[in-house]
Specification:
Elements: H1 6-10, H2 14-23, H3 28-42, E1 53-56, H4 58-73, E2 86-89, H5 116-123, E3 128-132, H6 166-173, E4 179-183, H7 190-196, E5 199-202, E6 223-227, H8 230-240, H9 258-265, E7 274-278, H10 288-303, E8 307-311, H11 319-334, H12 357-368, H13 371-384, H14 389-411, E9 416-420, H15 436-440, H16 447-452, E10 456-463, E11 470-476, H17 482-500
Parallel strand pairs: 2-3, 2-4, 7-8, 7-9
Antiparallel strand pairs: 1-3, 4-6, 5-6, 5-10, 9-11, 10-11
């Protein structure tokens, strides 16, 4: 081990780790082992610890790390992040590693291929630490709907880490991984980022390949980075982004330099940037401490030269209702393939000597799917049924068009839009589990971006006075203008780091009650 302790290395940013690798100050094996040790120390299981991981691949990660060290010794690194370890949300196909989507119906399934983003991180030399926990088939806002037990927020193990990608966010926040991949269908990267004090990015729809992503809702899903700094997200985005001929929705055009934009923003100069604060995404029902931190961040942006105006997007008030018709409709179609006939779980009905295919399918889906998945399948099937399609699904798609038009009108006036990422800080485990409508409201601010396909980024903007928990600020940009997210997000991060006297995560309390 190098002069620095393993704990020191786990608390470095991915960019700092990459620089240290390039300078020969540390090896990839040392970095990877330090993170595996951290996982063993604090992750535990659903009963004790963070429980960010569903599967840890220590042997595979160390083998990849050794290969990275050999490349660097030969002067042939594959890129900036070669040797920096990463975690992957369990909704992305990984050859040779289990992919369960947090569901019993896929328990033990090992894909025969890699998702494109997974292939790209392998090609770039990033050792994969393991697969992270999630709400079953990405349906949830708290990671409590995982069939393998909930993930816990590293800031307070009695609270949720957000969802559906709470495992990736918690792993990064708990210093178990410097980088992670998540997916965002209605806020599943950004909302966990807000409540765990991490950075989460939902790129432009089609900006990162969805090939190998187990689909929840094809027109909404998007892969994106989960990190501790905006620069780290930019570095990872450049590794996994870009056109993929295997994905028919992939955008075929060159990526701008996200890293350059992030470095520019870190200079804390927002002169010439016009920012719109969305009037519909605040007010009654929003936690006062969240709004206070958001308003303070906006004030700092003004002091840095930004022009701030209030912008109205009236159709956003209907986004939640439209989303919870469109998403279940697409989900009910996508999940029809889990029929017990081809792969995954198969359950035979009790008391039936020669069950039909339909009876086996019914028994399997009843045993393999959790309550939230069943709820959304029923809702989606109803919305698509004869006589109701136009009244529900068709109307929701019309609202989606109105939301896109609101974005277009807003971006005609401003460069980026701002809002708090989530209405509240992390709530307690179990607090909203039996109230689906209350749970759905956590995605109030993040859903519009998915419906319109525009990019969004959540960056920490302080701690709420009421509970001392992280608050996130959301930046939204026009489609294919993801570089604006990185410039503005990095500026906010730099301005607030100056105010807080250090990175927000450095203020996180040590884990209490974690596995030892």
């Amino acid at each position: 081990m190098s002069a620095a302790t393993s704990t020191d290395w786990t608390r470095r940013t991915a960019a700092e780790m990459a620089d240290a690798l390039a300078a020969g100050e540390v090896t990839s094996v040392e970095l990877t082992q330090a993170h595996l040790d951290r996982i063993a120390e604090v992750d535990g299981d659903a009963a004790a610890g963070v429980h960010a991981f569903l599967h840890v691949d220590a042997e595979g990660a160390l083998a990849q790390a050794r290969a990275s060290d050999e490349r660097r010794a030969a002067g042939e690194p594959r890129g900036t992040l070669d040797g920096v370890p990463i975690a992957v949300k369990d909704v992305l196909a990984t050859e040779g590693l289990p992919t369960t989507c947090g569901s019993k119906i896929l328990e033990g399934w090992v894909p025969p291929y890699d998702a494109t983003v997974v292939r790209r991180i392998r090609e770039a030399g990033l050792p994969i630490l393991g697969k992270t926990n999630m709400d079953e088939f990405a349906m949830g806002s708290s990671t409590e709907h995982s069939a393998y037990g909930p993930t816990r927020n590293p800031w307070d193990l009695d609270r949720i880490p957000g969802g559906s990608g709470g495992g990736s966010a918690a792993a990064v926040a708990a210093f178990e991984a410097p980088l992670a991949l998540g997916t965002d269908t209605g806020g599943s990267i950004r909302q966990p980022g807000a409540v765990t004090g991490t950075v989460g990015v939902k790129p432009t729809y089609g900006g990162i390949s969805r090939y190998g992503l187990v689909a929840l809702a094809n027109s909404l899903d998007q892969v994106g980075p989960v990190t501790r700094t905006v620069l780290d997200s930019a570095l990872l985005h450049e590794v996994v982004g870009g056109h993929d001929p295997l994905d028919s929705t992939s955008v075929d055009q060159p990526l701008p330099s996200f890293v350059e934009a992030a470095r520019q923003g870190a200079g804390k100069d927002l002169t010439g940037v016009t920012v719109g604060v969305i009037s519909e995404l605040r007010g009654e029902g929003w936690q006062p401490g969240v709004l206070a931190r958001f308003d303070e961040a906006v004030e700092r942006m003004v002091a840095a030269g930004a022009e701030v105006v209030e912008v109205s997007c009236p159709s956003f008030v209907h986004a939640l209702a439209a989303y919870y018709l469109i998403l279940p409709a697409e989900a009910s179609s996508n999940l029809a393939k889990f029929d017990a006939m081809r792969y995954g779980l198969r359950v035979l009905p009790e008391g039936v000597d020669a069950p039909s295919a339909e009876e086996v399918m019914r028994a399997t889906r009843d045993a393999g799917f959790g309550d939230e998945v069943k709820r959304r399948i029923i809702l989606g099937t109803y919305a698509l049924s004869s006589g109701y399609y136009d009244a529900y699904y068709g109307q929701a798609q019309k609202v989606r068009t109105l939301i896109s038009r609101d974005f277009e009108a807003a971006f005609g006036q401003v460069d980026v839009l701002l809002s708090p990422t989530a209405p509240t800080t992390a709530f307690r485990l179990g607090e909203k589990l039996d109230d689906p409508l209350a749970m759905y409201l956590n995605d109030l601010a993040t859903i519009p971006a998915n419906l319109a396909g525009v990019p969004g980024l959540s960056v920490p903007c302080g701690l709420a006075e009421e509970d001392g928990l992280p608050v996130g600020l959301q930046v939204l940009a026009p489609a294919l203008a993801d570089d604006r997210l990185y410039r503005v997000g990095a500026a906010v991060e730099a301005l607030l780091t100056e105010e807080w006297g250090g990175a927000l995560l450095d203020r996180a309390p040590e884990l209490k009650g974690a596995a030892q």
